[in-house]
Design brief:
Length: 63
């Protein structure tokens, strides 16, 4: 009986620790990935010019 109570108490006490162990690495991975994706999008946008802007400027010059 005492062992069963001890197991239940330990499980309840360790829930907070397990939550932190799982969520902290996930949050770090999410923030890191988010930064990498934004950086990659900026680099791609700088390297590959947007042809739509050029077309709009040519149309304005023609008018």
């Amino acid at each position: 009986m005492i062992k069963m109570v001890a197991i239940i108490v330990c499980a309840l006490v360790l829930q907070g620790c397990i939550h932190k162990v799982v969520t902290v690495p996930v949050k770090v991975a999410y923030k890191t990935t988010k930064g990498v994706v934004k950086g990659t999008a900026a680099v791609v946008g700088a390297v590959i010019p947007d042809s739509n802007d050029d077309d709009e400027e040519e149309l304005k010059k023609d008018k």
